[in-house]
Automatic annotation (TrEMBL):
Origin superkingdom: Eukaryota
Cofactor(s), by name: Mg(2+)
UniProt name for this protein: Prenyl transferase
Gene transcribed to yield this protein: preA
GO function terms (MF aspect): metal ion binding; prenyltransferase activity
Transmembrane helix found in the keyword field: no
Family named by the database record: Belongs to the FPP/GGPP synthase family.
Keywords: Chloroplast, Isoprene biosynthesis, Magnesium, Metal-binding, Plastid, Transferase
Length: 324
């Protein structure tokens, strides 16, 4: 993480520390294998950007800027839902490592991993219901539907070079941005904000989420296995055509051949990565991410003073700085 993630107020740092402790308590399962699988998901750590954003939006919008227990619980629910989606993603993508440790299905098997993911979704739903706020339940429940929609879209367009940037953005919303957008909106509902404020923070979360996914997809091409905690080029290997490849296709038609043969040869992934890096695709992808970051920042600055949103702005800038 960069300096911005360590630039939270001490209050947020304390909340994140408590969040990590609470996550361990919230995934209690009677069967030892299921418990071990679920526990492993959180032992890998993670940046906790999603719950951090929820906590900071809570602090900004809550009466007297005091984060409520319900908002703290919402932040925890957000991270559990995110983690559950990663377990299922890892099975679908056959990813051997995540955050530098073996994935659940790699340690156990696909069946246990799917059950562990389902268990976490069920746990999050139970805690969500216990917030006893129907509008929040409706807002967050839609996210799980969006996850499924995103996976289906990604699956049916696997290795399809005709995918457009618009298709890619739509899929990225379902798979990533929906959770951040809905969590931001849900915490403003808990703050009893006006619907205009709720919608503003939904849009803020949507643009932040899209930028985050685009940056992740750039790093899949430009970073290293050590930094990513998983193999480089995994999206290409699985036929998930992302912004860098879509933009590169405009300049390098030879990529069509590699896609049509589904990167079958051992050298195809490295060859494709090299071709992409020799185009303007990475910069175009960065520009696209920057566009969404600026839209998110504009929403904040139109509504609040710089001092009040300082930590949230820092975290928003951090997302784009991950590739600098």
């Amino acid at each position: 993480m960069t300096k911005h993630l360590y630039n939270f107020s001490s209050y947020i740092e304390q909340e994140l520390t408590q969040l990590n402790a609470n996550l361990q308590k919230m995934i209690i399962a009677e069967h030892p294998i299921l418990h071990a699988a679920a526990e492993q998901l959180f032992s890998a750590g993670g940046k906790r950007i999603r719950p951090a954003i929820v906590l900071m939006v809570s602090e900004i919008t809550a009466p007297e800027n005091t984060i409520t227990n319900e908002q703290k619980r919402l932040a925890e629910i957000t991270e559990i839902i995110h983690t559950a989606s990663l377990v299922h993603d890892d099975v679908i993508d056959n990813c051997e490592t995540r955050r530098g440790i073996h994935t659940v299905h790699n340690v156990f098997n696909n069946k246990i991993a799917i059950l562990a993911g389902d268990f976490l979704f069920a746990q999050s739903s139970w805690y969500l219901a216990n917030l006893q706020n129907l509008e929040v339940v409706k807002t967050i429940s839609k996210v799980i539907t969006d996850f499924a929609e995103g996976e289906v879209q990604q699956g049916v367009k696997s290795f399809n070079p005709q995918i457009s940037i618009e298709d890619y953005i739509e899929k990225s919303f379902y798979k990533t941005a929906s959770l951040i957008a809905s969590s931001c909106k849900a915490t403003t509902i808990l703050s009893t904000c006006h619907t205009d404020v709720q919608n503003d923070f939904y849009l803020y979360g949507k643009h932040v989420g899209l930028a985050f996914q685009i940056i992740d997809d750039i790093l899949d091409i430009t970073s290293s296995k050590e930094n990513l905690g998983k193999p480089v080029g995994l999206d290409l290997k699985n036929g998930n055509l992302t912004a860098p490849l879509i933009f590169a296709l405009e300049e390098k038609p030879e990529l069509y051949q590699l896609i049509s043969q589904e990167f079958q040869n051992l050298t195809d992934i490295n060859k494709a990565i090299k071709i992409i890096k020799n185009t303007h695709a990475i910069q175009k992808s960065k520009d696209l991410a920057q566009e969404h970051i600026q839209l998110a920042i504009q929403i904040l600055r139109e509504q609040y003073s710089s001092k009040k949103i300082e930590n949230l702005l820092s975290t928003t800038y951090y997302i784009i700085e991950r590739i600098n």
